[in-house]
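Contributing new complexes? Match this layout with iron/sulfur cluster.
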Amino acid sequence: MSEKSRETQENGKNLVRFECIKCGECCRQKGLIVTVTGRDVARLSSTLGMAAPELLRALDFYVLPENGNAPKGLRDTPLLKTESGKAYMALRKMESGDCIFLKDNQCMIHPIRPFVCRTFPFVFRDVAGRVKWGFSSMKDICPGIGEGSKATKQELVELCIAALEDLAIYREFAETWNETTAEPTVIGFLEAILSDVRFSV
Ligand code: SF4
Ligand code: SF4
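Output block (do not edit by hand):
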C-alpha cells in the first residue's frame, strides 16, 4: 500500500482530544498485555546491552490454550511457535500487574518504550488499504482522553503508519519462523530476531 493511498478515520467519528498525563494506569493493568515486536526487542537489546538470555528476564510468552481463541485486542498480533505452544511475546509483569519497567510510577525505558505503549489508547488497523484508528478496548482506564488539544489527523497518520509497518515486518518474520523452524524455542526466537537486519536499530 502506498502512503498516498492511506487514509485515517475512526468509523466516522470526529478526532478526539488526548494528552497523556503520565498517570501510569496503562502500565499497571494485569489485564493489559504489553506485546512487543521484533523492533521493540532489538531496541531493548541494543540500548540496554541485553543479549537473548538477559532479554528473557524482561519478556514473557503468553501461551494460547489449545483450541483457544485469540483474546480481544490481540487478534492482529502474531502468535509464534515455542516449546510450550503458540504464544504472544510481551513485556513481563510483576504479580501486582505492574510492568517490569515501571518504577516509582515512571517508565524506565520511556525513550525506547514499545510501540503499543506509544500508541495507547489508540489502536490502528489496515482495512483493505484504508488505515483506520480506534480506541483500545481498555480505553476506559485512560484519563488522558478528553485532555489537551485535539489529536490532529497528521499525528494519527504518522503514528498509524509507523505502528502498522512495525507490526507487518514482525508478522512476516513470525510467519516464517512458524513455518520453517523444526524445534522452536523462545531463546531461539530471540536470537533470530537479534540477527535479522530487518530489526536493526
Ligand atoms: S493511562 Fe492514558 S494518561 Fe495514563 S499513562 Fe497511560 S496513556 Fe497516559
Ligand atoms: S514499557 Fe513503560 S510505558 Fe510501556 S507498560 Fe512498561 S512502564 Fe508502561
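Reviewers usually confirm one structural detail per submission. For this one: The first strand starts at residue 8 and ends at 9.
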